[in-house]
Design brief:
211 residues, alpha/beta, Rossmann fold, binds S-adenosylmethionine
């Protein structure tokens, strides 16, 4: 059985990573504001901080993650307020057209390239026709200022330290053209996008293409 890559870091994840992520979550929630009763699924929810923010605004929060250590941490944090499942993003255990919003935050880049299209297909399957997908991940384009170089180099080192397959997948995600290269233009369209971190991070709001 594959070892859980987050088994050591899960307990410290919020302390180490949340200061970097918080501003992205704020921007993400402006791109797709929460609404009372909105059904939100976070795929690769980690410690579920994003879900926590949506749930506090009246959304119904569901998360899924393949790391038991991350799921344990998330369940302790959102006890009784969200359904957090252990599972694989490429085989979502949900029915068709269930969710109003699907979030994937810093998750796609760490998956193998062969898996990413399946994960997006699964997201499309469980998304309501009127729903949205909010993706936050590394931007494949060049830095947009000297600070962009600093930001990209810092991310490179974080991903390098994550190591092995994680680092290979990150490099492949960027080299392959990031999220825009992954989107099947017959299935999804970009409703809104925002490039931040001086060109290092992208936020995309996607919708299903009407057939
Ligand atoms: C960098 S963390 C981001 C966590 C969270 N989305 C956030 O914004 O803080 C990436 C998460 O994706 C999860 N993940 C990676 N591949 C996955 C897969 N195939 N299925 C489910 N979760 C996956 C990891 O276990 C990890 O918790």
């Amino acid at each position: 059985m594959r070892r859980d890559p987050y088994r050591r870091i899960a307990r410290f994840y919020d302390v180490l990573i949340e200061p970097l992520m918080r501003v992205l979550r704020v921007i993400g929630m402006k791109l797709q504001p929460p609404a009372e009763g909105m059904r939100v699924l976070e795929v690769g929810c980690g410690t579920a901080t994003f879900l926590d923010l949506y749930e506090r605004k009246g959304c119904i929060a569901v998360g899924i993650d393949s790391s038991l250590a991350m799921v344990d941490t998330a369940r302790r944090k959102l006890i009784g307020r969200a359904s957090i499942h252990i599972g694989d993003a490429s085989r979502l255990p949900y029915g068709k057209r269930v969710f109003d919003l699907i979030i994937m935050s810093m998750t796609l880049h760490e998956m193998p390239s062969s898996v990413r299209p399946t994960v997006l297909n699964e997201a499309c399957r469980v998304l309501k026709e009127s729903g949205r997908i909010l993706i936050i991940d590394y931007h494949h384009g060049p830095p947009r200022s000297p600070l962009g170089h600093v930001s990209k180099i810092s991310s490179y080192w974080i991903e390098f330290v994550a190591g092995g397959e994680h680092f290979r997948n990150y490099r492949n995600f960027l080299a392959a053209g990031g999220l825009p290269a992954l989107i099947d233009p017959h299935q999804l369209s970009i409703v809104n996008e925002k490039i931040v971190g001086w060109g290092n991070i992208a936020l995309y709001l996607l919708s299903l293409k009407s057939t």
